[in-house]
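Reviewers asked in the last cycle whether our approach scales beyond single polypeptides. To address this, we selected a multi-component target totalling 424 residues and predicted its structure end to end. The input consisted of the following lines:
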Amino acid sequence: MNLAGPFQDKPGVRIEALSLQRGSRRLFDDLSFTAPPGAYVELRGANGAGKTTLLRAIAGYMQPRQGRIVFENTDEPALSLHYLGHLNGLKGAASVRAHVRYWAGLLGGAAMLTDEVLEDVGLTRQAELPARVLSQGQGRRLALARLLIAPRPIWLLDEPAAALDADARRMLGQFVEAHCEAGGVALAAVHEPLGPTPAQSISLGAV
Amino acid sequence: MNAFIATFMRDFALLWAGGGGALAPLGFFLGATVLVPLAMGPDRALLAAAGPPLVWIAAALAVLATLERLFQADLEDGSLDQLLLSQSPLELIVLAKGAALWCAIGLPLALAGAPAAIALQASPEQIGVIVASLGLGMAAFIGVGLVGAAVSAGVKRGGVLIALIVLPFFAPPIIFGSAVAAGEDVGAALAILAGCALGASALGPLAAAAALRLQAE
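The resulting structure, written as structure tokens, was:
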């Protein structure tokens, strides 16, 4: 395992009376919860309940109309979080290895750990292949490599297990578990349990 | 700074990967400028007069063609989300993408200005100046183009929108670039071109980054 050592500064996320809307549609009102250091928090809800919007708001991609998102013990939230969305962020022409090396530079990680990370996500044999020939599940594995190459304390995962096979799901569960043991926070929107026991499970219901 | 270098290297590699992005504008530019003498006939005086403006128009259109996918691809495949989480400010990342575009497309296109100028009956001593002015002009085009590309990233078939936003700002480099190519007051025109290039590459990334932050929403 190549997860960064304990996150010393104990970062956490606190959501205070948050209301979000998508376009003109209200998703939820007055949502509050705290994800303390080391917590794995599960977000559940039907399709369209606002899981993705909530994660994107926490990531800072959109400003909430009401309520606050507070990051504890982090100065620069954008530098301390990972966002794994529905889109894997891959370029078809670039090789698997080039992706990981690029993320190490972009997000702050050690490019020399590329081979270890590729082994962790099970893509060693595909390292030189261009990303366009990867299957959906392999593409997802490559996106997971981003979490490992650049150690960041807060993980925002939007249906991270989508397209993954049983082995890869187990692997993802282990990543999340190890991340939280190291003091990191993981917020995941899921439909099926991810593996580790969630510290809390937030249900988002349509208003 | 790592993020700047990583983005520059990646974008440069992607522009040349698989004969992709970089060759098409270059081919367009060479094709357009070399076809002109064939279409206009062998009248030297006519070519020498019409040539310099044509080189600049072909260069501007070649750059315009590359802009549509510049940020749209990043928005569609999720890369933009990652750019926003980068270690460096988004402005710097956009500057890196612009620099990669200049090196992968702007520089080859400026060099291709040499054969184009010869085909259009420029005198040999002018060629060096024309190449230099095209290099500066490309930087100005790309700096302005970043803004148009960022604003229209979320628009399907945003090419027309980019052209509307960007073409008015292409006017100054085209005017002074054509003056250089025509041999009028070369020193002053080059200085103004350099000013356009510096201004556009300093302000373009700022405006483009602001537009991209809105696109992520």
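The mean pLDDT of chain A is 90. We regard this as preliminary and will revisit it once experimental data from Aim 1 are available.
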